Amino acid sequence: MNVTLKIKRYNPESDQAAHWETYALTVHPTDRLLDALHQVKWFHDGTLALRRSCAHGICGSDTMRVNGHNRLACKVLMQDVTQEGGTVTVEPLLGLPVIKDLIVDLEPFFAHYRSVMPYLVNDEPLPADGRERLQSPEAHERFDHGTKCILCAACTTSCPSFWWNDSYVGPAAIVQAHRFIFDDRDRAAEQRLAVLNEESGAWRCRTAFNCTEACPRDIPVTQLIGEVKQALVTGRLD
Questions:
Q1: Which of 95, 40, 19 is nearest to 63 (CA)?
Q2: What is the spatial distance between Cα 60 and Cα 104, in angstroms, rounded to a whole number?
Q3: Is the dihedral of CA 58, 59, 62, 68 positive or negative?
Q4: What is the pLDDT of residue 144?
Q5: Are 48 and 41 in contact (CB under 8 A)?
Q6: Distance between CA 147 and CA 176 in Å, rounded?
Q7: What are the E-state strand segments in 51-177?
Q8: Which candidate, 23, 4, 22, 7, places its Cα nearest to that of 83?
Q9: Which of 206, 118, 219, 115 has the alpha carbon at shortest distance from 169?
């Protein structure tokens, strides 16, 4: 089918402000948006800048705004975002500095991620038999949703609270904190909760549900944030 790709472009070396450019393409309905972007870069304009790696919805590197919603370009089918003769708008994520075209600076996002100690903390001696610290399926289920996060930043950059104040740690960081706060092998829950109880922590969430809608892994982000807030109020991790 014949479609138009409308892409927001910005080159700091030559542009004073971002602008839109359009490209007429012929695509298959089941092509991914990433295929269409490749067609632009490879055959129309080699200066187009975008991130992508695995192209299979795992690395999370090709997150962008598609028709006003955060999506992974490698998971979006053209038939789901346009029709014959239609137009698809593509722009960089909101809330983060644009480096060039569709590439944003993710360092602020990862700084918030690091602030919640996204790793297991346990200095206790290993089991006497030398094996790893075993965990029941039920205990793992308590935090399983957070293990599916691919750090694509789709949730955080769809959050109005983050747009308004980028000091907010954001949904992704809270999901990662949740993943370890509720892991019964971890011993640093209090430290993470202290971070999330600060002014820039979990209380900045206004329950807009944008984060849950944007997640390409179907993580119930708003629910997990609510569980962290409950732990902050009650001090309970059950």
A1: 95
A2: 13
A3: positive
A4: 97
A5: yes
A6: 8
A7: 63-66, 69-72, 87-91, 98-100, 103-104
A8: 4
A9: 115
Residue 28, CA atoms < 13 Å, CB-side half-sphere: 4
The token pair at 220 is 């119930």
189 contacts 173 by C-beta, under 8 angstroms: no
Q: How confident is the model at residue 238 (pLDDT cuts 50, 70, 90)?
A: confident
φ/ψ of 6, rounded to 5, equals -105, 110
When computed from its CA atoms, the radius of gyration of the chain, rounded to whole angstroms, is: 20
Place of tokens 């109005």: 160
Q: How far apart are the C-alpha atoms of 78 and 4, rounded to whole Å?
A: 11
Give the chain's domains with CATH numbers.
2-104 (3.10.20.30), 107-234 (1.10.1060.10)
> Tens digit of pLDDT for each residue in 111-154?
999 999 999 999 998 888 878 889 999 999 999 999 999 999 99
